[in-house]
Automatic annotation (TrEMBL):
Family: Belongs to the gamma-BBH/TMLD family.
Domain TauD/TfdA-like: 114-356
Gamma-butyrobetaine hydroxylase-like N-terminal domain ranges (all copies): 6-87
Annotated TM spans: none
Alphabetical UniProt keywords: Dioxygenase, Iron, Metal-binding, Oxidoreductase
InterPro entries in the record: AlphaKG_dependent_hydroxylases (IPR050411), GBBH-like_N (IPR010376), GBBH-like_N_sf (IPR038492), TauD-like_sf (IPR042098), TauD/TfdA-like (IPR003819)
Cofactor list: Fe(2+)
Domain of life: Bacteria
Pfam family for this entry, one: GBBH-like_N
SUPFAM superfamilies referenced in this protein's UniProt entry, alphabetically: Clavaminate synthase-like
Lineage: Bacteria, Pseudomonadati, Pseudomonadota, Alphaproteobacteria, Rhodobacterales
UniProt-listed Gene3D superfamilies: 3.30.2020.30, Clavaminate synthase-like (3.60.130.10)
Name the record gives this protein: DUF971 domain-containing protein
Length: 378
């Protein structure tokens, strides 16, 4: 609840019962008014444009009413109310962490030694609590397994159905991961693969990848996941100048593996938001194109940082490994978690199917469950 509210024409200052204070600008309060003329009651979407707000907007009164804030704006002579909890949640008059390369709220970075977060196929399909826990693991850790599923082909599509939709690419709605003769992609061989993010040559990249095991009697072929955010944190601690180089200059990625397909992107290996938050990793040696956007006098230092990041990623202590059994799958946040594979022999069989999906669907499903099904957390 609010204790007091004071104002001048352009700023309202409130004191919460927690003892904290916050200031809000008149134009910000007007733009975010919660009345039905400003926001649609059904979906909360804004019904006004910035041009609809008078350029000379001002506050003529501000007072605490029933624990919330009641404000009257001029020259509209419009009065609106803001709940105290809403103001506290949207307070922007506060100290901010401006550390370059920091991770966002709810992100848990990790390295080898953690138990892979996992859900049971039947439970996540039947129980809101189990589904919510599984989705929350993907959001926080960037990956999670799913066990106890069917061995029927295309079962991976039902994994995507838990939260969203398959993102179809030139590989189709899904792709096969098994040894092929004359493969169009190294993923279709028995070779080991360095930890990498998929499809860095796309803009935007597919933000989630699902790999589903149908057969796995071959020797080897264990899956490995590496937290790219933890790797970036280590690079920043060991070599802040190198971290800044990989974040400050775009790398280039390219794929021309089949007729009619030529995909290219120009993005940094370490991607930061405008205010410095770590938001993405693109790392894939197979798809790297020549780097031509780094100045001559910084290219050697750039390559040294690239090598150092690769050494961190390749460190066995960084990876969590597991061998998928038939009916098991795992999902990775492809903007963050790298995945690798040990080589496997021609004896036996190894058949996985993979597909892509979008993280916004998963985060939307999780957020909707948190709002509408709080009992799922119990």
């Amino acid at each position: 609840m609010l204790r007091t509210a004071t104002h001048d024409t352009s700023v309202v200052t409130v004191a919460f019962d927690t003892g904290t204070q916050a200031r809000f600008h008149a134009v910000w309060l007007r733009d975010n008014a919660l009345d039905p003329e400003t926001r649609a009651p059904g979906n909360g979407q804004r019904l006004i444009t910035i041009g609809d707000i008078p350029a000379d907007i001002s506050v003529s009164s501000a007072e605490v009413v029933a624990g919330g804030l009641q404000v009257t704006f001029q020259p509209e002579d419009k009065t609106v109310t803001f709940p105290a909890e809403w103001l506290a949640e949207h307070n922007y008059d506060c100290e901010r962490d401006d550390t370059l390369g920091r991770t966002g709220p709810g992100i848990i970075t990790w390295e080898g030694g953690i138990a892979a977060p996992s859900g049971d196929w039947n439970e996540v399909h039947a129980s809101p609590a189990a589904k919510r826990s599984w989705l929350a693991s993907v959001a926080s850790y960037g990956f999670a397994k799913l066990t106890g599923g069917s061995t029927e082909p295309e079962s991976l599509l039902k994994v995507a159905d838990l939260f969203g939709y398959v993102r179809e690419t030139n590989y189709g709605p899904y792709f096969e991961v098994r040894t092929e003769v004359n493969p169009t992609n190294l993923a279709y061989t028995g070779l080991g693969l360095q930890a990498h993010t998929d499809n860095p040559y796309r803009d935007p990249v597919p933000t989630l990848q699902i790999l589903y095991c149908l057969e796995n009697s071959a020797e080897g072929g264990d899956s490995i996941v590496v937290d790219g955010f933890r790797a970036a944190e280590k690079l920043r601690a060991q070599n802040p100048e190198g971290f800044a180089l990989l974040a400050g200059y775009p790398a280039r990625f390219e794929y021309k593996g089949s007729d009619g397909v030529c995909l290219r992107s120009r993005r940094p290996m370490i991607e930061l938001s405008p205010d410095g938050e770590l938001v993405g990793i693109r790392f894939n040696n197979r798809s790297s194109a020549p780097f031509v956007d780094v100045p001559f006098d910084r290219m050697e230092a750039y390559y040294a940082a690239y090598r150092q990041l690769g050494e961190i990623i390749d460190d066995p202590a960084m990876g969590v490994s597991f061998k998928l059994e038939p009916g098991e799958s795992f999902i990775v946040d492809n903007t963050r978690v790298l995945h690798a594979r040990l080589g496997y022999s021609g004896a036996g069989s190894r058949w996985l199917q993979g597909c892509y999906a979008d993280k916004d669907g998963l985060l939307s499903t999780l957020a909707a469950m948190e709002m509408t099904q709080p009992e799922a957390a119990e």
